[in-house]
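Changelog-adjacent note: as of this version, every example in the card shows the full chain rather than a window. The one below runs 213 residues end to end.
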Amino acid sequence: MTTFDLGAFLRKAGKHTIRRYRTGATIFSQGDDCADVFYIQSGRVKLSVTSKVGREAVVATLGPGDFFGEGCLTGQPLRMGSATATSSCAIRIVAKAQMGRLLHKQHAMSDRFIVHLLSRNVRIEADLIDQLFNSTEKRLARQLLLLARYGKRGKPDRIVAAISHATLAKMVGTTRSRVTLFLNKFKKLGFIDYKSSSPVVVNNSLLSVVLHD
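Full-length structure tokens:
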């Protein structure tokens, strides 16, 4: 059985807008109209939510092959969070009505989308458990492994695009100083390789931090 190529399918399925974003560019903001579904062709995207007092929480980091903004399909009128490019990105934008037609008519497409939603749900549950029961050190190690795409099909990327300690702190739920402390510890133990403002190279040995009780 041949593997369904979602990217190729979307290219042939109709006229979709493709937009390119530079690192740090806003794809959409919290409170914007919710009318499209987004598919990442290349690059990485951060999803975040900001509280009324201005505190930001990073709720997901996504990469090639991931969807986001699918809340419009459930009737969500406004974006509940923001999406920001954390690297140079190429994003395919599919209008809500067209996405609905594709999911209704194309079984391979709908199957892939269901897998995406189930995977996202599993990830959210894992994130909640991580926050409730794991130490800061273990949460940071897990986030680095996720950013390096460990557990995804194919080989992991290993190289995590340069990401600030402040952003990692928001993802892990701790302070910037704690992130710096544990990154230096991981580096000293040989779990990662990195220099300030440079990409982080994640080594397989970092898994030991997550698996250790």
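Structural remarks: Helices lie at 6-13, 96-105, 107-133, 136-147, 165-172, 176-188, 207-211.
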